[in-house]
Design a protein that fits this description.
single chain, mainly alpha
Length: 190
């Protein structure tokens, strides 16, 4: 009786949350087991804790890299703002801040793709793998997109190594952006 009541309530959860998803019988059993262990009995898998810590470290790295992206662009705004020191500092800070905020936002969106999922979630919510040509095209676009920003950072900074920060960030963001764009186009015309 309790098992049927539990199955009925789990069916309600599945029907309300996963309506567009079609589950095979083995996936449905995995989902029942997952809901029973995680939601009802509140059991935590030690592997999930390690994955969660790794995900938080990745987020911290994204925050550091995203914040550092604006540094190479500070001199561009600073040197081209005229003779007034206050205007130079404001201009340099705004240019650096704009690059940093945009990159930080994009990198945090990128880290969401690496969300920690349990084995059951991975089995149920399998995503189709992208083809190799899509990956290659995305990386070529990322490489080509990273070069101009690195060149500008190299040319207008007295610290030439700052160009590498600009290149890595521009490469990562352009690669991810083109990958998502190509993926959306493929989904639209499939």
């Amino acid at each position: 009786m309790i098992r049927n009541g539990l199955r009925f309530s789990i069916n309600n959860i599945i029907n309300s949350c996963l309506q567009p998803t079609i589950l095979f019988p083995d996936q449905e059993l995995e989902l029942y087991d997952f809901i029973n262990r995680r939601i009802i009995n509140k059991q935590i898998d030690p592997q999930e804790i390690k994955k969660h810590i790794a995900h938080n470290i990745l987020k911290c790295a994204a925050i550091l890299l995203g914040s550092a992206v604006g540094i190479p662009n500070f001199d561009i705004g600073f040197n081209n703002a005229g003779k007034n020191q206050a205007v130079k500092w404001i201009s340099g800070s705004l240019v650096a801040g704009t690059f940093s905020i945009t990159s930080l936002w994009s990198l945090l969106l990128l880290t969401q793709q690496f969300k920690v999922r349990s084995i059951e979630e991975k089995n149920i919510l399998q995503t189709s793998s992208k083809s190799i040509p899509v990956h290659i095209i995305s990386h070529v676009v990322g490489l080509l997109g990273g070069i101009p920003g690195a060149f500008v950072a190299y040319k207008y900074n007295k610290y030439k190594w700052l160009a590498s920060i600009s290149f890595v960030a521009d490469y990562a963001l352009a690669t991810n952006g083109s990958f998502e764009l190509i993926d959306q186009i493929i989904k639209k015309y499939k």
